[in-house]
Amino acid sequence: MTSLTFTSLGGCREVGRNAFLIESGDSNFLLDYGFEIQNSLVPITIPEKINGFFLSHAHIDHSGLIPVLYKSGYNGKTFLTEATSSLAEMLLKDSIKVQERRGEQPRFLTPHIRKFIKNGFIAKYNQKIRLHNGIAEFYDAGHIPGSCQTLLDTNGKRVLYTGDIKFEETEMLHGADTRIKNVDVLISENTYSYKDHPKRREVADKLKEIIQETVYNNGVAVVASFAVGRAQELLLLLYNLGFDVYMDGMSVEATKRILLNPSSVKNPKQLKKAFGRVRKPRSSQERSRIIKKPCVIITTAGMLQGGPVEHYIKKLHNRPECSLTLTGYQAVNTVGRTLLDTGRYVTEGINEKLKMNVNFMDFSGHCGRGNLIKYYEKLNPKKILLVHGEHSEKFAQELKGKGFDTIAPKNGEKISL
Ligand SMILES: [Zn+2]
Ligand SMILES: [Zn+2]
């Protein structure tokens, strides 16, 4: 029997730079190759020979360094869904700008992104991909459009990597496919192993309330959003409330790309209709003009770093009738996180308490602990490896208590499967 091992190259006991190596006999499979862009953290060096590279979804913490693979001579395929290819291309181009804005030498350039896109092997959900040493298959992960769980059937074992996962259906997505059988090893994200999220409908209702109140008070409701997935969900929730709704920043481009991959969302017709109805400001003059009247603006960046949201905050921060709502995960040391923790808006040359009404709405793209445990009970794998979470060790202990053979690997640790 040849050996089958897992090595974490990054993304264990942390959230960021995901990269996991599966060595199956003489084949090396790489799952994700991400970049922790906030602190410029990269994975441990990968082996020279990669026989298959699988991308779970477009987010930079999973895709951010793929162009570096191709820059350093990798000529093989990247297996991914069509929506992931298109959205990763957009986010990677943007990440060059982010690196430049921070005065860093970008780690890759546009030609390396092009090489990655050209070498993409587009796969659909539930399509069997033949490999030199086994079979791979993607299943819907319900996290963002195009996101997938990856099943590797190799060397007599079935290894399932969840990627980032959400089971609950939303306005945008169906929720993860859980009908996967005979899993031996589960590599599972556990971002929210320590809490459950409130029901989506309740969060959506609360957001609508905040927005209605703002607009009735003659204010502007700024809704800060991630470009991919979240902005489109917010659009579907808000476009027909009867107010003027605008969409701004990278969300506009992301929506166009998602609409070109209609099967990546639950109701593409409705999304198309909603996107056609809202206006998209293009210049700072136009942005300054629209905020003279009460309205709703869905805009990037989700953590308040970059994007037109900066323009809106600078113009509206002194107006208590206006509101700013954060709608997603706020990483440590970001402007958004600082605002939530201290009530102060701190960015280049500005440090002040906002007079706008600031709110946080838990629209997570990840599942909470209860659903994670339910999934483990359903799959009943022989072994669980916990990745993509800051509380993995504690959760592993807890799962052991429930009878699961669970490990919270360290980065660099090699585990026999
Ligand atoms: Zn993600
Ligand atoms: Zn992630």
How would you concisely characterize the structure shown here?
The chain has 417 residues and is an alpha/beta fold. It is built from 13 helices and 21 strands. The strands form four sheets. Strands 6-5-4-3-2-1-21 form a seven-stranded mixed sheet.
CATH overall fold name of the largest domain: Metallo-beta-lactamase, Chain A
What's the CATH class label of the largest domain? Alpha Beta
Strand content range: 15-25%
Whole-angstrom Rg:
21 Å
* Number of spatially distinct domains: 2
What ligands does this structure carry? zinc ion
Largest sheet: 7 strands, mixed
Shape: globular
Annotated CATH architecture of the largest domain:
4-Layer Sandwich
Structural class: alpha/beta
- Kindly, what is the distance between the CA atoms of the first and last residues, rounded to a whole number of angstroms? 12 Å
The number of helical elements comes to 13
Number of extended strands: 21
Low-confidence stretches: none
How would you write the strand order of the largest sheet? 6-5-4-3-2-1-21
Helix content: 25-40%
Overview of this structure, please?
This protein is 31% helix and 23% strand. It is an alpha/beta fold. It folds into two domains: 4-195 and 365-416, Metallo-beta-lactamase, Chain A; 200-360, Rossmann fold, CATH 3.40.50.10890. The strands form four sheets. The protein has a seven-stranded mixed β-sheet. Strands 7-8-9-10-11-19-20 form a seven-stranded mixed β-sheet, with helices on one face. The radius of gyration is 21 Å and the shape is globular. The chain binds zinc ion (2 copies).
